[in-house]
Amino acid sequence: METSKRGQWGSSFGFLMAAIGSAIGLGNLWAFPYKMGKTGGFAFLVLYLILVALVGVVGMLGEFALGRKTGKGAGGAYAALGKKYSFIGWMAVISPFLILSFYAVLGGMVLRYCLGFLVQIFGADGFAGQGSGFFGWLLYSGQSMILFFALFLVCTMAIVMGGVQGGIEKFSKAVMPALGVILIGIIIFVAMQPGALEGYKFMFKPDMSLFSSPGSFFDVLKTASGQVFFSLSMAMGINITFGSYLDKQKSLQKNAVIVPLFDTIFAVLAGMMILPACAAFHVDYAQGPGLLFASMQKVFLDGMGGQAGNIIGFLFYFLVFIAAVTSSIALMEVLTSAVVDRQLDKGKEPNRKKTALLFAVLQFLIGIPVALDALGSGGAVVKAPYELLGLTTESAGFAMWNDCWLDFYDMLTEGIMMPLGALLMSLLMGWVFPNLVKDECEQSGHQFKGAGYFKFCFRFVIPIIMVIVLITQIQSFFL
Ligand code: PFF
């Protein structure tokens, strides 16, 4: 089978677990709460949920159908529809490239916290004498940032090289439920802390004031839409590739609902853990990419304290690390398999190990600014984009693309390439190949439900939202 020659997930790698494993990761635990914290709580949550239903479920079905119909990964799938569409597939390869470079920096930080708590269990100090202020210290510790970033990349690369995803799959079947349980445990602990209520209000109390100003409405819409792509691993070739391995008997529609559903549950749970914790332990909601680390450190060290805090802290970060690795291997796999496929097409013997190594080195190089700019806190070894632009933390404003290198890479992918990819994909599914999704869904003997809804979303809703997102993104350069 070609699949085994390409050395990808292979048929034993349970489709749903693989798709859920790739979807649930730092996007849910780290990005969702900080983006909600930065852009206004309830308004973000509502827009996010609407976008999951309109863009997430529909777009995911489109990608699954495209993959299964053509039996190809992203590059090949679009080319199979017509040579002139192959650039869409290539765009879907550039995004994982940029995303993995910052994903691994964050994964490295998770690893650092995990080791810190492990050491503390054995009585030593795992946080350089900084306690709950460790995050601020770590950001400026270039050596640690680089070391753990590299370590995370090496873990990802080793798995992709060795093709031991089978093992990871079994592991992640245990990890996802365990992560769910520990999240709920921490949520309950945080709920009992004085002051936590404000966090729930921030998330769930209807507050439409944001919608009274069109500028901030569009900003929140843009951020929420980027987050949907990131969290559901959309417009990155992942879902197309998964679809290409899906058995023709399986219901595409069911999978396109289950994956976003689980993913969203995990994101909301992470929000319910972090935002009330911020309220109880006086951490600024709007502080940006450091929110998870800063708030959880207070929960484990100051809230729980002692050995209980060390053990729960270790378990938490260990599970987050595994969730992040199951996502990062998917990201590196898209890149590696794109090259391996091309080598096979040209009749060359593919070299998967060399390819994975090459990508890991490139990821490392482009991730260096992300690891060394102290997430834009200012005055670090590498200047953040706003500093290069001659702005200060105050004057940089809400733009959320020039705050730090991480936000800049995020803007290029979630802000531009992914909406553009989704726009083109839905135009193709809505107008150029209007029966592709329906035929592919019915192929397994399942009835295609909600045909009118899907058609309307592909033709109008997704394209319109994507155009708004793109315009908002372009405008934000001139803020
Ligand atoms: N969806 C993952 C997350 O939320 O953490 C990130 C991700 C994984 C994006 C794999 C893209 C991808 F191909």
Description:
This protein is mainly α. Helices cover 75% and strands 0% of the residues. It has helices spanning 2-6, 15-23, 26-39, 42-70, 74-81, 86-121, 134-139, 142-162, 165-191, 197-204, 214-231, 238-244, 252-281, 291-304, 306-345, 352-372, 385-388, 405-432, 436-442, 451-476. Helix 4 packs across helix 12 (238-244) and helix 8 (142-162) packs antiparallel against helix 16 (352-372). The radius of gyration is 21 Å and the shape is globular. It starts with a helix and ends with a helix. The chain binds 4-fluoro-L-phenylalanine (PFF). Residues 22-23, 25-28, 96, 99, 230-231, 233, 236, 238, 327, 330-331, 334 line the site of 4-fluoro-L-phenylalanine (PFF).
List keywords for this structure.
binds 4-fluoro-L-phenylalanine; mainly alpha; 479 residues
What is this structure's SSE topology?
Blueprint: H1 2-6, H2 15-23, H3 26-39, H4 42-70, H5 74-81, H6 86-121, H7 134-139, H8 142-162, H9 165-191, H10 197-204, H11 214-231, H12 238-244, H13 252-281, H14 291-304, H15 306-345, H16 352-372, H17 385-388, H18 405-432, H19 436-442, H20 451-476
The protein binds 4-fluoro-L-phenylalanine.
